[in-house]
Every structure is written in C-alpha cells, then in structure tokens.
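hi support,

uploading two proteins for the ticket. first:
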Amino acid sequence: METLIAGLIIFFAIHSVAIVNDAWRRTVIDRLGEWPWKTLYSVIALAGLLLIVQGYGAARLDPLVLYTPPAWLRHVALLLLIPVFPLLLAAYLPGRIQQATRHPLLAATKLWAFAHLLANGTLADIVLFGSFLAWAVVDRISLKHRTGPPVPMLPRTAANDAIAVAAGLGPYIAFVLWLHMRLIGVSPLG
C-alpha cells in the first residue's frame, strides 16, 4: 500500500502544480523552456504512474475488503463507463461534447473513478479511485478560478463529436470484452 500511496503523491503532486501555484509553474517554464518542462513533468508523472501500477498490483494480492458491492452496481458502473473514452477524445476534438462538458478529460476521470468506486470495495480501490475522483473534482473547481494553459486543437466542428463517439466506443468495447481482463486481471463482466 505504501508504494501505491507514494505513486499517487508523486503523480498528483506534478499534476497539481497549476492548481497550487500556477505562477511558479509559469516561471519555471519561462526559465527552462516549454519542452524541458514538459519532459520533466512527463518523467515525474510516469514515475508516479509506474509506482501506482506496481503498488495497486501488490495491494490486490492481499486485499483488505471494506465492503462488497451488490452485483447490480457492476451494471451501473459499466453504463457510467460508456462515455469515458468518447470524453477523452472530445478533450482534443473540439465540438459540442467539449463545449457542454467544458473539461471532458476531467469529466472522464470523474466518471471512471466513480464507476470503479461503485464496483469495488477494497481499501486499495478506495485509495486509488477515491484519489483520482477527489483530484478531478478539485482540479475542476480550480479551473473556475484560473485559465488553463492554451492547448493547440483542431477547429471546432460537428464531425469531431461523431469521431469522438465512434472512435471512443471501440476502446470501451475492447476493454469490456478482453483488455481489462488482460491488463488488470479482472473481467468487468464478472
């Protein structure tokens, strides 16, 4: 569990720099340059992510079950997860989805985390998915009081929504049918 927590701290620390001290982040970018900052950011985030994966995998070997969700919550979770991949794509494909959600990446993160909290009841699940849910909520609230960094995007078109939905449903189906089992070791279908 310590590895999982360390990974979460590292991962969210670098992802929260703009939330906590955006002026410092901008100063560092001005001093280092954009690409060196992005490289440093990516290396730290990747280190945190690797620790999260390792720590979560280890915690699952000896789980501490806090609650056992009823079976029907798995079905609710599967339904909540349907828009996650389309939202991830909509973050980079401007259209009505992006306009309606304002921050589709954070919406996807919140749905993903909440759905997993509904379907899982171990301490490691609560720590992992609860952390992601809490961070996404805090980041979304903070964006109301700050402007995010400019992100180069495609032009806003209605076709982008169709692409996001069509291209996003493929990975969802793949995860439900076999990728989740292959990568995580648990079938979402039970």
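and the second one:
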Amino acid sequence: MADLEQKRRAVEPYLKFLRRLDDDVDLDTRVGHVLDEYSGDDVAGLAATLEDVGVTAGFSVPAVHLEERDDIRAAVGDLAEAGHEVLLHGYRHTSYLDVPYETALEELSRASEILTAVTGREPTGFHVPYGAASEGTLEAASELGVEWIVGSGPDTVDGAASELTQLQPSRPYDLQLLERGVDPVAAFEQLSENAEADSVFLCHPNVHFRPGASEAFVDWLAEERPASPAAVAANPETGPGLLLDCFPPFRVA
C-alpha cells in the first residue's frame, strides 16, 4: 500500500497540472517528458558536453532510476566523480506538499542511502518534486544533512527558523516554453532574460529531442556558462545555476 501511495503522489499532481494547460498546447513534448527515457549513454554524452563548455551542473535523480537501471547507476556515479552534484529528488518523483515528517523521513532516507552508495557522498541539495514541501519534509531533509533546496517550503520548521537555503527555478522553464511551440533558440534566450542571479535554470534534456532543441541547448550552455546550484546556494551573486532533470517524472509501469 505504501508503494501504491507513492505512485499516486507521483501521478496525481502531474495530471492536475495537465488539466491546467491551454487547449492549444501540443502535448507531444509532455508525452516525451513522461515516456522518453534518458539512457546511460545519453547521460555520458551530456557530461562530455558539460566538460567541453566548462560547466558544472546539478542533476535531479529520483532514486528508483538508480535502483532499477545499471546503466543509469554507472553514468550517475561518473557524474559525481566528475564533480557534478546529484541532488536528492525523492525515491520516486512524488509530491511532498502535504507529507508528514515520518513519511518524508522514511522516503528521503531510502533515497539518500541509494544516492550515497552510487556517488560516494551524501546529498546536500534537494530538488523538491513539484516545487513545494511541507514543514515535516523540510525537517526530515535537514535531519538527513540537506543544506539547500530547489523549491519552496515554510520559513519555520518545528517552531524555529529554517536553516535551509531555498533556491527558485526561473520560470517558465524549457519544457513549458518548448511545449508552447517557442523556437528552441528563442526559448533558451528567454530563459536567460527571465533569470535572477539567485535562481536556477531548470532544464530537461530528455524533452529536447522531440522539438529539435538539443543543438540550441548546447549553444546556449556555451554562451551562458551557468554556475552550479550549490555555488548559488553558498553565494547568490554567482548565479544563475544550472539544474538538469533528465528523467521521467513517474514510471508508467
């Protein structure tokens, strides 16, 4: 039952979001967001691109992908070895908006243990799925060594001021622009125009294939040269940061 509840918390918020889309939005990019798998070779190719342009990024990885796929586990381990940050993103991509402390601690502990085993280091960043966390979730994350999050949550935890730094993604992000038919080059230019120094670029390379945005993304990286999210959390003047979310938001099977 706990597993089914996690899956519900993954699928339900996504379906609610889809209901809010305008009728004229082409859903092909959203279909890709759910179905297009990013392979270990894709991750390795992206890592090579980042090395070529001299960019260190953060990667959001639901731990279930590391548990189920040897190619992803190996590729993510290589990312960490190359200096990229692997962020806690839950065991599955589940909503933490109304989750109590006990549930959050159990799920995030499991995810953190898997990430630590794969990368050799405990995650200090947490990309909150769907962007909003409960007080209990932030309390659990802080207890597990998280120092900063990408997303939002209460300013106080258990009656005291939260010590977690909260970074916000610049909106609209690439997925939202591309699904509305914005030309890829213009979409990435708009990302730069909308970003604040203390924000992060939230990009989804697994959806760049369908609208033909991969080349524009690489050119934009070379021009923009964003910082890492951890660097922005430590010093907002160094941003914007780059956070890459390459994996489907939930498993269909």
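thanks. also noticed: The first helix runs from residue 2 to 19.
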